[in-house]
Specification:
about 30% helix; 11 helices; 9-stranded mixed β-sheet; 9 strands; about 280 residues
């Protein structure tokens, strides 16, 4: 798909986003993509996540997935309030966003059409294949590239635009070439999906990869009976103090703002919990 130059160079203001999406809806809404299945890839069962994604992609329980465009627009408004391109010497294409444990989150595609450079990482190949489908175009738009580190067994897919890299691999693995590489992190329920014992490793990686002064836009669940269910998940119910523990984001990041509910959750989830947002800044 050809994109407006304003998007390629990051000069289209947010107020134009709705009109743009109406004219250029994400491919996952196109009829000719509805029956396009991601390429099947064999992988060992990653602690149940492979089975989870198999169920989702075959029409099962959507779990945490949010596909409502209005929700994405609200999230984008928050994201751009803190990860902006007000400096006229730069464009959104100069802003590199890491999206850990992204699955096939449509918001990644929205960031891309807005001109940001995006890098995602997920353990499950089928989820990454589903993400590739959202970008539309031809399968030939993606090429498998060799990792910079020959010891890295992850699979790297690079998009023909030069602004999207999708990685099948372990987000907790250290990657020396990613150190101080990213301007921002988009974390939608990623931290909240992890067991308590995995949070330190995850946040250590985020601290390594985000540049000094870089921002984290994080969404997480806050359940109505938080005190009763704290520690139970996924998804885990989280407040600022949970995120900012020294063994979590608190070691390398400062908490900038608590956004409250960023949008209404669809279906039964919305009756028992809120989707809340937090902004953090690399020290």
């Amino acid at each position: 798909r050809r994109l407006p130059l304003a998007y390629l160079f990051g000069t289209l203001p947010f107020r134009s986003t709705t009109a743009f999406i109406q004219r250029h809806p994400p491919p996952y809404h196109h009829h000719h993509h509805q029956h396009q299945r991601p390429q099947k890839t064999t992988i060992r069962n990653m602690g149940g996540w492979n089975d989870t994604w198999s169920d989702i992609l075959n029409g099962g329980n959507p779990r945490w997935k949010v596909t409502d465009e209005k929700c994405h627009e609200k999230a984008l408004s928050h994201f751009q309030s803190f990860v902006s391109t007000t400096d006229t010497s730069s464009s959104s294409a100069d802003i590199s966003v890491l999206c850990p444990l992204a699955g096939d989150d449509p918001f990644v595609y929205l960031l891309w059409i807005m001109g940001y450079s995006v890098t995602t990482i997920d353990l499950v190949p089928d989820a990454v294949e589903a993400m590739k489908v959202q970008f539309g175009g031809s399968p030939n738009d993606w090429s498998k590239v060799k990792p910079d580190d020959e010891k890295d067994e992850s699979v790297y897919w690079s998009h023909v635009s030069g602004r999207a890299t999708l990685v099948v691999g372990d987000a907790l693995q250290h990657r020396s070439t990613w150190v101080n590489r990213f301007d921002a992190v988009y974390d939608k329920d990623s931290f909240g999906a992890l067991g308590v014992q995995m949070r330190k490793g995850f946040c250590t990686r985020m601290g390594e990869y985000v540049k000094s002064g870089g921002m984290v836009y994080l969404e997480c669940k806050l359940k109505d009976n938080h005190e009763e269910v704290k520690g139970q998940g996924p998804p885990h119910s989280l407040k600022k103090e949970d995120l900012m523990e020294a063994t979590s984001y608190g070691d390398a990041f400062d908490h900038v703002e608590e956004l409250g509910a960023v949008y209404d959750l669809p279906g039964p989830m919305g009756s028992t919990m809120k989707q809340t947002g937090h902004i953090m800044k690399r020290k």
